[in-house]
């Protein structure tokens, strides 16, 4: 057998073995697949206005990727407001009711650029797909976007007890898919989410600004910049 031909076969075989390391992609929802941050901000600001303090867009960045009750605690700390546990539950419920009025008006046009194309490519390549989101409204949002069928596993805020940066949501997603954590890539737009992915032993693609997501293995502006070549290149990082 020709030595050059044999060499090429070995290289191709090695590449194929290497590429199979990444078997699943786990996506955060808000800021990755759809931009609901604007609706969260409006709903939280309504609560802050009621309590008589300012809540800015910059303040809202601190709430990305964390649970509703943790977000409320951050909001109350900004306003230096103390509330009982019962009062907190009532405030969180009211915020969610306000938020739902906005997301129930959403449609597929709200899907961020490149998302469907990349999800389609993953399916064609046989890469497993899951959602790992702190949102308790994830199913409602996916249904409004008509994206539910893309995800083999959906782990949201109703299925976890620990907020990011704890890796619980991503580890449960990997478990639901039957894939080991080190074979998973997480797509996140929040610092807490990046920390969660890394502490869970997964690769992470940060979507957003490098000064916030600097620990991610790869940083992009959005899924419109993602492709299989970049995905498989994460094996080397």
TrEMBL record:
Cofactor, free-text remark: Binds 2 magnesium ions per subunit.
The keyword Phosphoprotein is annotated on this UniProt entry: yes
Gene3D superfamilies associated with the record: HAD superfamily/HAD-like (3.40.50.1000), Putative phosphatase, domain 2 (1.10.150.240)
Residues that bind Mg(2+): 28, 30, 188-189
GO molecular function, one term: beta-phosphoglucomutase activity
Enzyme Commission code(s) on record: 5.4.2.6
Primary enzyme class: isomerase
Keywords for this protein: Carbohydrate metabolism, Isomerase, Magnesium, Metal-binding, Phosphoprotein
Residues bound to substrate: 28-30, 44, 63-68, 71, 95, 133-137, 164
Any Gene Ontology biological process: carbohydrate metabolic process
SUPFAM superfamilies per UniProt: HAD-like
Entry annotation: catalytic residues: 28 (nucleophile), 30 (proton donor/acceptor)
Site (Important for catalytic activity and assists the phosphoryl transfer reaction to Asp8 by balancing charge and orienting the reacting groups): 133, 164
Family note: Belongs to the HAD-like hydrolase superfamily. CbbY/CbbZ/Gph/YieH family.
Name listed for the protein in its UniProt record: Beta-phosphoglucomutase
Native source organism of the sequence: Saccharicrinis carchari
